[in-house]
Amino acid sequence: MPKTTTVHYFIKQDSEALSVAAADWIASAVSDAIAARGIARIAISGGSTPKRAFELLADPNQPFRSRIDWARLFLFWVDERCVPPDHPDSNYRMTREALLSKIPIPEQNVHRMEGELDPEEAASRYESALRTQFRLEGAEVPRFDLVQLGMGDDGHTASLFPRSAALDSMMRLVVANHVQAKDSWRVTLTWPVINHASKVFFLIQGAAKAGVLRDVFQGPYRPEILPSQLIRPRSGELFLLLDKAAASQLPNSAGQDSGTLEVTR
Ligand code: 6PG
Fold first, then answer.
1. 128 alpha carbon to ligand 1 midpoint, in Å?
2. How many angstroms does the Cα of residue 100 sit away from the middle of ligand 1?
3. Beta carbon of 49 within 6 Å of any ligand 1 atom
4. Is 81 within the bounds of a domain?
5. Residue whose CA is closest, atom 12 of ligand 1?
6. CA of 35 to the centre of ligand 1 (A)
Protein backbone atom coordinates (compact mmCIF):
# COMPACT_ATOMS: atom_id res chain seq x y z
CA MET A 1 0.00 0.00 0.00
CA PRO A 2 1.75 3.25 -1.12
CA LYS A 3 2.23 5.81 1.61
CA THR A 4 2.73 9.55 1.22
CA THR A 5 5.23 11.33 3.43
CA THR A 6 5.23 15.11 3.56
CA VAL A 7 8.87 16.12 3.65
CA HIS A 8 9.36 19.61 5.09
CA TYR A 9 12.77 21.05 4.26
CA PHE A 10 14.45 24.09 5.77
CA ILE A 11 17.53 25.55 4.10
CA LYS A 12 20.11 27.58 6.00
CA GLN A 13 22.82 29.75 4.51
CA ASP A 14 25.82 27.84 5.85
CA SER A 15 26.89 25.18 8.33
CA GLU A 16 26.92 27.51 11.36
CA ALA A 17 23.39 28.75 10.65
CA LEU A 18 22.37 25.12 10.16
CA SER A 19 23.85 24.12 13.53
CA VAL A 20 22.04 27.01 15.24
CA ALA A 21 18.78 25.83 13.67
CA ALA A 22 19.44 22.25 14.76
CA ALA A 23 20.14 23.34 18.34
CA ASP A 24 16.90 25.34 18.29
CA TRP A 25 14.99 22.33 16.94
CA ILE A 26 16.33 20.02 19.60
CA ALA A 27 15.71 22.53 22.40
CA SER A 28 12.14 23.10 21.17
CA ALA A 29 11.34 19.40 20.84
CA VAL A 30 12.75 18.64 24.28
CA SER A 31 11.00 21.53 26.05
CA ASP A 32 7.72 20.76 24.26
CA ALA A 33 7.88 17.09 25.31
CA ILE A 34 8.70 18.01 28.90
CA ALA A 35 5.80 20.50 28.96
CA ALA A 36 3.44 17.85 27.59
CA ARG A 37 4.56 14.75 29.48
CA GLY A 38 7.07 15.76 32.11
CA ILE A 39 10.02 14.11 30.37
CA ALA A 40 11.68 14.06 26.94
CA ARG A 41 13.28 11.02 25.33
CA ILE A 42 15.36 11.69 22.23
CA ALA A 43 17.79 9.69 20.12
CA ILE A 44 20.77 11.40 18.50
CA SER A 45 23.17 10.39 15.78
CA GLY A 46 26.91 10.59 15.60
CA GLY A 47 29.22 11.42 12.75
CA SER A 48 30.55 14.95 12.34
CA THR A 49 27.53 17.04 11.41
CA PRO A 50 25.71 17.28 14.75
CA LYS A 51 28.80 18.14 16.84
CA ARG A 52 28.48 21.91 16.45
CA ALA A 53 24.78 21.80 17.30
CA PHE A 54 25.62 19.85 20.48
CA GLU A 55 28.25 22.47 21.39
CA LEU A 56 25.67 25.23 20.91
CA LEU A 57 23.18 23.39 23.13
CA ALA A 58 25.76 23.28 25.91
CA ASP A 59 27.00 26.85 25.51
CA PRO A 60 25.77 29.08 28.39
CA ASN A 61 26.19 32.10 26.11
CA GLN A 62 23.64 30.69 23.66
CA PRO A 63 19.84 30.73 24.22
CA PHE A 64 19.37 26.94 24.05
CA ARG A 65 20.88 25.53 27.26
CA SER A 66 18.51 27.41 29.55
CA ARG A 67 15.48 26.21 27.58
CA ILE A 68 16.09 22.59 28.59
CA ASP A 69 15.37 21.09 32.00
CA TRP A 70 18.27 18.65 31.72
CA ALA A 71 17.08 16.50 34.63
CA ARG A 72 13.99 15.64 32.58
CA LEU A 73 15.83 14.76 29.38
CA PHE A 74 16.62 11.10 28.68
CA LEU A 75 19.24 10.73 25.98
CA PHE A 76 19.66 7.77 23.68
CA TRP A 77 21.70 7.07 20.57
CA VAL A 78 20.52 6.12 17.10
CA ASP A 79 23.67 4.12 16.53
CA GLU A 80 27.22 3.53 17.68
CA ARG A 81 30.44 2.24 16.27
CA CYS A 82 31.67 -0.97 17.94
CA VAL A 83 34.60 0.70 19.67
CA PRO A 84 35.30 1.68 23.30
CA PRO A 85 33.66 4.90 24.56
CA ASP A 86 36.99 6.76 24.56
CA HIS A 87 37.86 5.73 20.99
CA PRO A 88 38.17 8.61 18.46
CA ASP A 89 35.41 7.00 16.34
CA SER A 90 32.96 6.70 19.24
CA ASN A 91 29.71 8.66 18.81
CA TYR A 92 29.41 8.71 22.59
CA ARG A 93 32.88 10.26 22.92
CA MET A 94 31.98 13.00 20.42
CA THR A 95 28.77 13.74 22.36
CA ARG A 96 30.54 13.65 25.73
CA GLU A 97 33.13 16.18 24.54
CA ALA A 98 30.65 18.47 22.77
CA LEU A 99 27.71 18.26 25.18
CA LEU A 100 27.57 15.81 28.08
CA SER A 101 30.69 17.08 29.85
CA LYS A 102 29.23 20.62 29.89
CA ILE A 103 25.60 20.15 30.99
CA PRO A 104 23.92 19.04 34.25
CA ILE A 105 22.22 15.96 32.80
CA PRO A 106 22.04 13.16 35.41
CA GLU A 107 24.29 10.24 34.48
CA GLN A 108 21.40 7.80 34.78
CA ASN A 109 19.55 9.72 32.06
CA VAL A 110 22.28 9.00 29.50
CA HIS A 111 21.85 5.65 27.78
CA ARG A 112 25.05 4.81 25.93
CA MET A 113 25.30 1.97 23.44
CA GLU A 114 28.12 -0.21 24.79
CA GLY A 115 30.36 -0.27 21.73
CA GLU A 116 33.11 -1.99 23.67
CA LEU A 117 31.07 -5.20 23.95
CA ASP A 118 30.47 -7.97 21.45
CA PRO A 119 28.14 -6.32 18.86
CA GLU A 120 25.27 -8.77 19.35
CA GLU A 121 25.54 -8.46 23.14
CA ALA A 122 25.60 -4.66 22.92
CA ALA A 123 22.52 -4.71 20.69
CA SER A 124 20.52 -7.00 22.95
CA ARG A 125 21.54 -5.05 26.06
CA TYR A 126 20.41 -1.81 24.41
CA GLU A 127 17.15 -3.37 23.35
CA SER A 128 16.58 -4.43 26.97
CA ALA A 129 17.39 -0.90 28.12
CA LEU A 130 14.80 0.50 25.71
CA ARG A 131 12.19 -1.99 26.92
CA THR A 132 12.87 -0.95 30.50
CA GLN A 133 13.03 2.80 29.90
CA PHE A 134 9.89 2.86 27.75
CA ARG A 135 8.12 0.18 29.80
CA LEU A 136 7.43 -1.80 26.64
CA GLU A 137 5.36 -4.97 26.59
CA GLY A 138 5.34 -7.64 23.89
CA ALA A 139 5.81 -6.21 20.40
CA GLU A 140 5.50 -2.57 21.49
CA VAL A 141 7.91 -0.14 19.86
CA PRO A 142 9.45 2.82 21.73
CA ARG A 143 8.24 6.23 20.63
CA PHE A 144 11.00 8.81 20.87
CA ASP A 145 9.93 12.42 21.07
CA LEU A 146 12.64 13.25 18.55
CA VAL A 147 15.13 11.32 16.45
CA GLN A 148 17.97 13.27 14.87
CA LEU A 149 19.50 11.56 11.84
CA GLY A 150 22.40 12.21 9.52
CA MET A 151 22.88 10.89 6.01
CA GLY A 152 26.00 9.43 4.47
CA ASP A 153 26.95 10.16 0.87
CA ASP A 154 26.07 6.53 0.14
CA GLY A 155 22.51 7.11 1.32
CA HIS A 156 22.88 5.37 4.68
CA THR A 157 21.36 6.73 7.86
CA ALA A 158 21.83 5.55 11.42
CA SER A 159 23.96 2.47 10.78
CA LEU A 160 21.58 1.22 8.12
CA PHE A 161 24.07 0.83 5.29
CA PRO A 162 23.35 -0.21 1.71
CA ARG A 163 22.85 -3.95 1.26
CA SER A 164 23.45 -4.62 4.95
CA ALA A 165 21.52 -7.16 7.00
CA ALA A 166 19.99 -4.53 9.28
CA LEU A 167 17.78 -3.31 6.44
CA ASP A 168 15.72 -6.47 6.83
CA SER A 169 15.49 -6.33 10.64
CA MET A 170 11.93 -5.32 11.37
CA MET A 171 11.11 -7.42 14.42
CA ARG A 172 13.96 -6.11 16.55
CA LEU A 173 14.42 -2.71 18.17
CA VAL A 174 18.23 -2.72 18.06
CA VAL A 175 20.61 -4.84 15.98
CA ALA A 176 24.27 -5.36 15.35
CA ASN A 177 25.14 -4.64 11.75
CA HIS A 178 28.31 -5.52 9.86
CA VAL A 179 29.28 -2.76 7.45
CA GLN A 180 31.23 -4.40 4.65
CA ALA A 181 32.37 -1.10 3.13
CA LYS A 182 34.00 -0.15 6.42
CA ASP A 183 34.88 -3.71 7.48
CA SER A 184 33.46 -2.87 10.88
CA TRP A 185 30.52 -3.54 13.17
CA ARG A 186 27.89 -1.09 14.31
CA VAL A 187 24.94 -1.14 16.69
CA THR A 188 21.83 0.61 15.39
CA LEU A 189 18.19 1.28 16.04
CA THR A 190 16.11 -0.46 13.41
CA TRP A 191 14.13 1.60 10.92
CA PRO A 192 10.72 0.71 12.41
CA VAL A 193 11.84 2.25 15.70
CA ILE A 194 13.00 5.41 13.95
CA ASN A 195 9.72 5.64 12.02
CA HIS A 196 7.72 5.32 15.23
CA ALA A 197 9.14 8.58 16.64
CA SER A 198 6.92 11.61 17.11
CA LYS A 199 9.33 13.72 15.08
CA VAL A 200 12.27 12.73 12.87
CA PHE A 201 14.70 15.15 11.30
CA PHE A 202 17.70 14.73 9.06
CA LEU A 203 20.56 17.15 9.67
CA ILE A 204 22.59 17.30 6.46
CA GLN A 205 25.29 19.70 5.31
CA GLY A 206 27.73 20.06 2.46
CA ALA A 207 27.78 19.79 -1.31
CA ALA A 208 28.93 16.17 -1.07
CA LYS A 209 25.44 15.22 0.13
CA ALA A 210 23.50 17.15 -2.53
CA GLY A 211 23.34 14.33 -5.07
CA VAL A 212 22.37 11.58 -2.64
CA LEU A 213 19.77 13.85 -1.04
CA ARG A 214 18.16 14.35 -4.45
CA ASP A 215 18.30 10.61 -5.16
CA VAL A 216 16.79 9.67 -1.80
CA PHE A 217 13.82 12.02 -2.06
CA GLN A 218 13.38 12.42 -5.81
CA GLY A 219 14.75 9.21 -7.26
CA PRO A 220 13.27 5.73 -7.64
CA TYR A 221 12.53 3.78 -4.47
CA ARG A 222 15.57 1.58 -3.96
CA PRO A 223 16.00 1.29 -0.19
CA GLU A 224 18.47 -1.55 -0.45
CA ILE A 225 20.97 0.91 -1.92
CA LEU A 226 19.51 4.11 -0.46
CA PRO A 227 18.52 3.08 3.08
CA SER A 228 17.51 6.63 4.02
CA GLN A 229 14.42 5.94 1.88
CA LEU A 230 13.25 3.58 4.63
CA ILE A 231 12.67 6.60 6.88
CA ARG A 232 8.95 7.30 6.48
CA PRO A 233 7.66 8.31 9.90
CA ARG A 234 4.36 6.92 11.08
CA SER A 235 3.32 10.54 11.67
CA GLY A 236 3.46 11.09 7.91
CA GLU A 237 5.88 13.97 8.30
CA LEU A 238 9.64 14.12 7.93
CA PHE A 239 11.86 17.15 8.40
CA LEU A 240 15.11 18.06 6.67
CA LEU A 241 17.45 20.68 8.07
CA LEU A 242 19.89 21.49 5.28
CA ASP A 243 22.51 24.03 4.36
CA LYS A 244 22.39 25.59 0.90
CA ALA A 245 25.17 23.37 -0.38
CA ALA A 246 23.36 20.16 0.56
CA ALA A 247 20.05 21.48 -0.81
CA SER A 248 21.56 22.63 -4.11
CA GLN A 249 20.12 19.72 -6.14
CA LEU A 250 16.64 19.68 -4.60
CA PRO A 251 14.26 20.81 -7.37
CA ASN A 252 12.56 24.20 -7.00
CA SER A 253 14.58 24.94 -3.88
CA ALA A 254 16.77 27.63 -5.48
CA GLY A 255 16.35 30.89 -3.58
CA GLN A 256 13.97 29.31 -1.08
CA ASP A 257 14.60 28.86 2.62
CA SER A 258 11.90 26.22 3.09
CA GLY A 259 9.48 24.03 1.19
CA THR A 260 7.75 20.67 1.10
CA LEU A 261 7.99 17.54 -1.01
CA GLU A 262 5.20 14.97 -1.17
CA VAL A 263 6.91 11.59 -1.43
CA THR A 264 4.63 8.64 -2.18
CA ARG A 265 6.05 5.11 -2.06
C1 6PG B 1 27.40 7.51 12.42
C2 6PG B 1 26.10 8.21 12.18
C3 6PG B 1 25.79 8.18 10.72
C4 6PG B 1 25.98 9.61 10.27
C5 6PG B 1 26.19 9.71 8.80
C6 6PG B 1 26.57 11.14 8.40
O7 6PG B 1 27.53 6.76 13.37
O8 6PG B 1 28.30 7.81 11.62
O9 6PG B 1 25.10 7.92 12.96
O10 6PG B 1 24.54 7.73 10.33
O11 6PG B 1 24.82 10.36 10.66
O12 6PG B 1 27.26 8.84 8.47
O13 6PG B 1 27.80 11.42 9.03
P14 6PG B 1 28.44 12.90 8.93
O15 6PG B 1 27.58 13.77 9.77
O16 6PG B 1 29.83 12.73 9.48
O17 6PG B 1 28.42 13.27 7.46
1. 24
2. 19
3. yes
4. yes
5. 152
6. 30
pLDDT (tens, 9 = 90+) of the chain, 265 residues, equals: 788 999 999 999 999 999 999 999 999 999 999 999 999 999 999 999 999 999 999 999 999 999 999 999 999 999 999 999 999 999 999 999 999 999 999 999 999 999 999 999 999 999 999 999 999 999 999 999 999 999 999 999 999 999 999 999 999 999 999 999 999 999 999 999 999 999 999 999 999 999 999 999 999 999 999 999 999 999 989 999 999 999 999 987 778 899 999 999 8
CA 243 to chain centre: 17
The response to whether residue 91 sits with its C-beta less than 6 Å from ligand 1 reads yes
Q: How far, in Å, CA of 262 to CA of 251, rounded? A: 12
Is any atom of ligand 1 closer than 6 Å to the C-beta of 90? no
Does the model's pTM come out above 0.85? Answer: yes
Number of C-beta neighbours around residue 207 at 10 A? 13
In a domain, 71, yes or no: yes
Count CA within 13 A, CB hemisphere, residue 7: 23
Is the C-beta atom of 19 inside 6 A of ligand 1?
Answer: no
CATH code for position 200: 3.40.50.1360
Range of the domain at 121: 14-237
Question: Residue 54's closest CA among 90, 29, 17, 22?
Answer: 22
Quote the number of domains for the chain: 1
